[in-house]
Design goal:
about 325 residues; alpha/beta; TIM Barrel; 8 strands; about 15% strand; binds adenine; binds zinc ion
């Protein structure tokens, strides 16, 4: 259910890797990561911090540009099956060649080629947001930002930060965000998922981001909520991810309804689908059930996502035509 077609702004490429795909690669390369799966073959983790470790272990079997091309194909096939026509995915030079620019260019070319192929086959459009990893520290983030600056264009359209929100502070990454911005990239940051309202405030103030990944814990400070609404900062909300990780006990208790009602620009995404058992259709279904949201609201979400997308005007026109068709 849920309105088709859909737009998705917050998806981690490695986090979207089906466990079967990762197990297959591990087998081919004789890498033993059996400990990250449960008896049914799903990813297994105890909490968010364990999830980050499992994520990195799963990612360790992706060692070549061709692996990332295969991953891109698999992920886009699933997204297209969910009715997604436009997707922005987080990509990390940390995992693609260890932040070496020449290697990163090879990974990027492979992913772009796979994305072009998916667009021709299924009509789905993909764009990339280069993401540094907070717990890897500011030094590595600077190298990531340089890769981002060198490959910024009409396909790499944004820069962001993911990882452990409990370590370091947004201001520690200011140089990287300034560097990315100077190269024309649009900015987003994970905040207000594990950190409270001050984490969201710091990201907006110190990094100058126009979107926030998650941002849901802004709800704990209504003055901040009003400020986000006023400044039209867009939240990339991933309700199913937050519920799976135990931030909220269920969709009915999730603040997306309140944020929307108070005028904050919200969008809906799946974050790391096989880890959290999220799909775009399920997110829409659950929101319909929890808040009685109908196609009118889902249409608003799509319009917000289109306006907040980091792609260029020509691409937006193309998406708009598909939405109207
Ligand atoms: N990396 C992948 N998923 C993430 C999440 N939900 N929060 C922070 N970093 C992530
Ligand atoms: Zn995320």
């Amino acid at each position: 259910m849920g309105l088709d077609p859909k737009l998705e702004l917050h998806l981690h490429l490695e986090g979207a890797a089906p466990p079967l795909f990762i197990r297959g690669l591990a087998r081919e390369k004789h890498i033993d990561i059996s400990g990250i799966f449960d008896e049914r073959g799903n990813y297994k983790y105890k909490d968010f911090w364990d999830f980050l470790k499992v994520y990195e272990a799963a990612t360790s079997v992706l060692t070549t540009p061709e692996d990332y091309a295969r991953l891109t194909r698999a992920v886009l096939e699933e997204s297209a099956a969910q009715g997604v026509i436009y997707s922005e995915t987080f990509l990390s030079p940390d995992f693609c060649g260890g932040r070496d620019l020449a290697a990163w260019r090879d990974y990027l070319a492979a992913m772009q080629e796979a994305a072009d192929e998916a667009e021709r086959k299924d009509g789905i459009i993909l764009r990339g947001i280069i993401t540094c990893i907070r717990h890897f520290g500011p030094e590595k983030a600077r190298e990531t930002a340089l890769c981002a600056a060198e490959t910024a264009g009409d396909w790499i359209v944004g820069f962001g930060i993911a990882g452990d929100e409990k370590v370091l502070a947004p201001k520690d990454f200011r140089w990287s965000f300034d560097c990315a911005k100077e190269s024309g990239l649009r900015l987003t940051a994970h905040a207000g998922e594990w950190g409270g309202p001050s984490s969201v405030r710091d990201a907006v103030r110190d990094l100058g981001v126009e979107r926030i990944g998650h941002g849901v814990r802004a709800i704990e400070d209504l003055a901040l909520v009003d400020e986000l609404a006023e400044r039209e900062i867009v939240l990339e909300v991933c309700p199913g991810s937050n519920v799976a990780l135990g931030i909220y006990p269920g969709f009915r208790k999730h603040p997306i309804g309140q944020l929307f009602d108070r005028g904050v620009k919200v969008t809906v995404s799946t974050d790391d689908p096989p880890f959290f058992h999220t799909t775009m259709s399920r997110e829409f279904d659950m929101l319909h059930q929890a808040f009685d949201w109908d196609d009118g609201v889902f249409k608003t979400l799509n319009e917000t996502a289109l306006a907040a997308a980091f792609c260029d005007a020509k691409t937006k026109d193309k998406i708009k035509k598909k939405l109207e068709a």
